[in-house]
Each structure stands twice: as structure tokens, then as C-alpha cells.
């Protein structure tokens, strides 16, 4: 292969040289462009929220071919879950790239998360100008899916955002959808349906084997491999072995002939039938079914497969002749007799036929009742008619019509009782619909909706081979600005197919997709309507579901949604003023609804509160009391991750009276720190030891490798919250003395070399009023407690730089400035502080600013502060983070700084954050022997969620579900997680989610404690 490629490269170079000699002007032209970039292809990392998504649109082999034959650059976004490793890609000639910023053509499988979508243009490989990118994916927009309209709108010109700027819209990216790639006859040419069929058949056999096990029978299919466990040839081989066993020993007599019914005529059915062909299969017809089960001599060393086309079970209601054409013209004239003719005989149904409203369902829930009644009836009849006693002990109808592998996975669709999809982690479940009478059994359902992802290697290989010609056509479009009409033969067909598969281009919907404008407008109108006070629903709660409302969909909300939406008996409404983010979090889930709200319009919020059982507020802190008022008014319980503010505390009595729980401080800090501190103190006291010192430090930081930025800090939660925290004063007790740090001295009170980690160099800073915790933790001086200290963790240098920012007025919360440019933020803030103009941005101005700032900023920090401001306000070309737009209305300097920092100090997709929590408790026993107990947590962010989001979001979700499930034992009024049954519940759920505190106990050694470190500063 390598030789072949090298020869080809040499040949191409030879051709180029030859060409250059023959065509000097073309050679000059090529020379002129020798510094132009080559066409670049980017292979996207799939959405980290889709944990099973391991497929990739191009294999390393295909990449190698493209590089050799099309002379392109290929970049890939690192992803450790992907079926191909980074080494394989690098060996093929591709280069890792965090954002894929250089890519002209960006390829992915599923839809790109909105915040990762690149919409900016790239440099034209043929000129010095810019060209739009092309994004190719299964966008799930082409049926107007509401949850993906925000994605589609990113490709479209929006006059309210872009004005009349036609040049801008011409440079918006092009969206090509794999699903729309068809041949000249309109047949889809690439897709994964066949693999869904294969994987679905395997999961269906597995699921049925579990059902049989519950019915007391072990079938040979118990050893069916899970589809993700091996490449396809090996899976087939395993099934063949099961088949050989069946051919030799038969299927268990106690379940009678094993009958598989496959519905559908497309790739799904083909895949399923192909896999089943590894078994000793006998194809049967509908007419054969009654005799197959009734005849005791039916051989059991075969698997009976019925491929049921629609014509076998669809009947005209008037008894007239059935035809496909007539059916599609008059679907309501037809009914399905599947429940009577086929379902009662099937051991497992593999459903590969889709359903659309208006057409008869394959089987309604009521018809399923009839089918199961028929199974019971046949069972009785067969038992009565069986004479020989041996056969009389078995029930050949056992388990029939109970196992469904619904590959089409239309929720409450063709199989009406199928009420939810299952996951590859838990592929099947048992479900007894509410309408079922008591004597009928529950159904075993396999309804995984992402089946092809479980065969990532085979599916990616075939997909890659299928899409390669289309990718080449896209490359040539960039290379030569060549459109379909200029290609010939099959090249023309391929290029034209790409044009047909284009959903949007140049800021407009194209081809057959123009109708989608209406769906996009509806979605936008809903967003706009929010300001007029209405809401937008994406999904709707089902009867019987409990309802949680989450207000705020910001940085820590992702894990809350994941955790709550895992509970199918709960419906979550996600409400904030960020419609795109709400839609993103709903992510097609059937039990989540996105609603746009503006807290300035409380009547909309009130309606939502009224309709909920529990409300979560992840809004900025100042909004919590207003939400709590609504909760009291409508007798709803509230959960927040924020400190109990004085305004919140005032609501205690009214909340008790209204029988309402307002549960706060259930994030990380406050939250996990509380729960774990209470559990630790409790266990020490149970050992009859007294607590003499309690110190607790917590902080969210970038992982060390991603911390090389000013402040050595990046934002994983509300930036405004981080800055406001720097304005608090602090109180604490140390070695028997009370200390008070005024707010203007907080950042001067850093604790260098904080001994809370063996590896990390950290500094600490006191966190608010630690003495507030004396009651909660029962840590009073009267009980012998000498130290009570809570602190925040940062990397060294944070406090000095933040202090400098504060000193020049950047944390000002009172005055307003109308920002001229980001470069003038600091001079403008300082001017407001000094009450006189400071400087402008030219060089002389810079010197004047330095001089003015030097009055307030310690000399040793000044150069570092100037460097930080320059870095923050001047992103280089290679920066992955950009400046935010300059606001046109006046804002407080602190809010402007928060916007600037949150844009410039944000995490790139591949970067990780880190949460560190460390408690140190010194205990003393009856003989005054002291011990050091530590309890600590270190969590790194992963590709799915930041560590901060997990550490805040998970306890919030667990608390909300706790309130939903155990409200009778929960307290009422304003609380933190102080009740033992609550904090132990939260800690055990956190353990289960991998957030486990580590404990240690050591004998006391003078000078080796956090307390001792604090004493070196305050004594
Ligand atoms: N206990 C802890 O350890 C901890 C840690 C981090 C965050 N928190 C708290 O959790 C909450 C959420 O934090 P985050 O980082 O996700 O915050 P964020 O700033 O990222 O998100 C705030 C959300 O509120 C929405 N919002 C703001 N103003 C609105 C308005 N007027 N109308 C409607 N929606 C509005 C925003 O659109 C966003 O969805 C905050 O209250 C924060 O203080 C606690």
C-alpha cells in the first residue's frame, strides 16, 4: 500500500513538473499560490454526551488515500472513545487539531453540538480571499425537528443579526446532510440501516433469552454476543456456533418452535435477515404459523423465520383488494391484522418497519392485549388436545408475543406500547402498559435507538467507503471551484448528489429544503415570543410523569439534565433565556422540554412553577428569592446550589407555613463540602472523639496542563459569581482567636503553599464567614474547638492579579461605563475610579495608563497585570477564544470584565478542569491524643462534562429527585443539606456516580497540618 502511494506521489510530482514546463503561465500561477493552504478536511469528535458514539465518517485507510490522491490536509479532533485511535490517524497522515479551525470540509456522523459548530469562513485555497466551510453530518434537521432548528438557523442569514450584509451571508457555512445522499433514482446511498438490523437482531435474541430465563427456560441464545463486543465476522461466527448447537440439540422443547418475525423491506430488515442466516433457518409464511406451534412433531433443530411484508398483515377495512399504491393513497382505509395473524405465534418480533401518523400501526396496545389473550387461549386449547403426558407438561405458547426488538424505535408508534427507547448500557426492559389486565404478562422490549453505534468498526468502514466519492467531489469543489455541471460521467452524478444533499448554502435553504424556513421561523418566533411572555415546548409531559422545572441552563446544568432525564417517570422542563442552549440540552430526549423564559416576565415563570412538582433554580443568585416566593405561593419545593442569602433566610417561616422545602447549598461548595464535612464530623464523634480544629478548602481550577493563562483560571461556572466572590469579606476562628478580613483586604490574605495536595502547588484564600458554620457543624469554642476555617483554592498568582484588577476599578459594581473597545476597558474603569479621564490606547496613552495604575497596584504585580490585560484584549490569530462583541449600552466594569474573562478564559473542547476539595479535622480523645482526619476529593473533567458541572449538577439532581421521592421525610422551610438522611443519601448517590471522598487518619504531627500553615499567616 505504502509503495503504491509513494509511486503515485512521485508520478503526480512528475506530472506537475511536466505540466509546469509545458504551461509556463500555469506554473507561474501555481508558484504564486504555493503559500496558499491546501484543501483541509476535518474529522469531528462526536458530541461527548453520546457516550456510545464511536463511529467515524472516514477510516484511516480512506484518509491515507485522500492525502495521496487529492493532496489534501486532514485534521482530526482528538477523541479517545472513537473506534480509530489517534495513532492510526497520525500514521495515515492526519494531524490532531483541537478545534479543526483550518478545515474547509468538516465531517462528522451526528449533529455538531452548537457551541462547537464552526461557522466562520476559511482561507480560499485558490486565492487570498475567504470561502465558506462545508459541514457534513446527519443533521436531523431535514424533517423540521424542532430541537435542531437552532442548529439549522446557524447556517442561515438572519437579518436581525447580520443586517443586510449579503457578503456575510455568502460566507456562512454550507450544510450537507448524509441522509440526503441518493442515486439518480432517489435511493439513499449511504446510511447505517443495515447495521441497525444486524445489531438489533443480536440485541433482540439476547433480550428474548433473558425473557425465557425469567420464564424458567435457558435457551442457547443466552450466549448471544452483544454487538459492541467484537467485529462483525466474529459476531457472526459466535452466532453460527449457537446455530450448530441448535441444529444438533434443538431449541428447548418447553418453549416450542422458535419463531422469529422480521418486518420491513429496507436495509434494517436486510441486516437482520442477513445475521439470522447464520442460524439453521427455515423461512415460513403466515399461513404456516398455526400448524408450526400446534404440531408436536415440528422439528426444534431449526429457527423459523417469517419475513412479514406489509401485504401479509394489512387488510382493507371493507374487505376489498389490497395494493401498495392504494394503501399509500388511502392509509385510513386499511387496518393491521398483525395482532391476530402473526403476533400470537412469534417468539420474538424484529420490527424494521417505520410508522408515520395517519397510517395504521403494526399493533396498537389494545390489539396487543387481544394477541396475548389469543396466546393464552391457544395455550389452553393445545394443552387440552395434547394426549401424551410428556408433552402435556410443556407449554409451547410460553413467552410468545412477549418479546419485541423494535429497531424502528418510533416511540408510541408502530408498536403503540413502546413508550421509550432503551440504551446500549441497558438495552432491554420489561413494561406492562397501564391498559393491560392483571392476568396478562409484561412485555420485554429492546428499543435501542442508536444500534449502529454498537458496531462502530464495521459500520464506519462501510460508511467511509460509501462517502469517499462524495468527499472527493467536495474537495474538488474547493480545489477548482468546480460545480456539478462541469464534471463528467459518474463524477457528475456524484457531484450532483452532493448538491441534492445540500440543505443550506450561502445563508439560504436550498433545493427541496426551502420549506424548512417555516420551522426555523417558528423556533425563532418562540425565542422572540419569550420576550412577549410565551413559551416554546419541544416535548410534552406524559400522563403520570412527575414534573421538575429547571430554571437556568448554564454551565453546570448538563449533568442535572442527564441525571434527571434518565428517570423516565420524570419530565424535565428546561427554562432560561437561552433557547439554543435549552434545545441543546433537550437533545431529542422525549422527557425534556425547552422553554424560553425571561425573569423580567415573572408571569411566564409562575405558570411553569405552578405546573411543576419540584423547581430547581440554576439562575444567577439574585433571582433565587423571587423564585422561592413563587414556590411558596404555589406550594412547590425548591432546590438551589447557592448559599442561603439573607433574603432567602427571611422566607423560612412562610415556607414552613406553606409546607414547602426551600433546599439550598446543594452544589459543590456549598454542597458536597457540607455533606462530606457533616458525615466526617459525625463519624469522629461516634468514636467518642472531640473535634478541636476544622479546616476546609475547595476550588475549581483548570487542569495543570490547561492553566497557562492569566489568573491561571478558566471559567467552569458563572463568571460573575467568581468575580463577586472576590468582593466578600471573611471571618474565621484560628487557634482560639476570631479574625475578620474586610472585603478590600480579602485578596491580600492569600495563603501560599497550601498543603492540601501532594502534587499541586496551590494557594488559598478565606471564604466568607466560616463562623456561620459553628451551629451547623456544632463547632463552638465552648466545646473546645480552637479552629474553624473555610477557604477557596486557586493556583499561585491568582490573588495578586485579581487584587490588581480590583485596584484599578475592574471589579466595580456601582459605576457604569460605555465601553469603547476591549482595549480601553482597563483605562475606562480606572478613569471612573479616579473621576477623571486617564488615557487613550495609543502608545503615549499606554504609558499614562501604566503610570496611573502604578498608584494603586503593587510594583511587583504591575508588569504581570499589564501583560495579562494585553493578552486578554488582543487575541492572536491562533487563539481558540475570541473577544466578545463590545456592548453598546453602559455596564458595570465587573460585568464587562466577567464577559471578557468568560470569553477569553473559557475551556476549549479538549481541555479539562479540576475540582479539589479537602477537609482536615483534628480530633482529640479522652487522653488528649490528637489525630488528623482528612477527607478529600479530586475530580477531573472529561469529554462529556466539566468536573465543576458534575460536582454541582449531580448533587442538585440527586437532591431534586430526593425531594420528589422522599418529600414526606424531608424537612420544611429554608435549609441546607443538614438532615442526616438527606446528606447520607446524596453522598451514597455521589459514590455511585464516581464522586467518592477519600479518607485518611494519621497521628497528629506538629507543623504538618493545614491549621499550622494558617497559623504562620495569622497569629
Ligand atoms: N454550590 C456550588 O458549588 C456552585 C458552583 C457553581 C455554581 N453554583 C450556582 O449554580 C447556579 C448556576 O451556575 P452556572 O454556572 O450554571 O451559571 P451560568 O451563569 O452559567 O447560568 C445561568 C443561567 O441563568 C440564565 N439566566 C440568566 N439571567 C436570566 C434571565 N433574566 N431570565 C432567564 N434566564 C436567565 C442564563 O441564561 C443561564 O442559563 C448559580 O446560581 C451559581 O451560583 C453553585
Protein model, in words:
The chain is an alpha/beta fold and 1019 residues long. Helix content is 37%, strand content 16%. Helix 3 (60-70) packs parallel to helix 4, helix 8 packs across helix 10 (267-276) and helix 20 (558-565) runs parallel beside helix 34. 45% of the residues are buried. Residues 1-34 and 528-538 have low confidence and may be disordered. Bound molecules: nicotinamide-adenine-dinucleotide (NAD). Nicotinamide-adenine-dinucleotide binds next to loops. Pfam families: Sacchrp_dh_C (PF16653), Sacchrp_dh_NADP (PF03435). GO terms for molecular function: saccharopine dehydrogenase activity.
Bound molecules: nicotinamide-adenine-dinucleotide
User: Biggest sheet: strands, sense, closure?
Assistant: 8 strands, mixed
Distance between the termini: 73 Å
Number of domains: 5
Using the CA coordinates, give the radius of gyration.
33 Å
Unreliable parts: 1-34, 528-538
Q: Look at the helices and sheets and give the structural class.
A: alpha/beta
User: Under the CATH scheme, which class of the largest domain?
Assistant: Alpha Beta
Number of strands: 34
Q: Quaternary state, please?
A: single chain
Number of helices: 36
CATH hierarchy: architecture of the largest domain: 3-Layer(aba) Sandwich
Trace the largest sheet across and list its strands: 3-2-1-4-7-8-18-19
Q: What percent strand?
A: 15-25%
The helix content is 25-40%
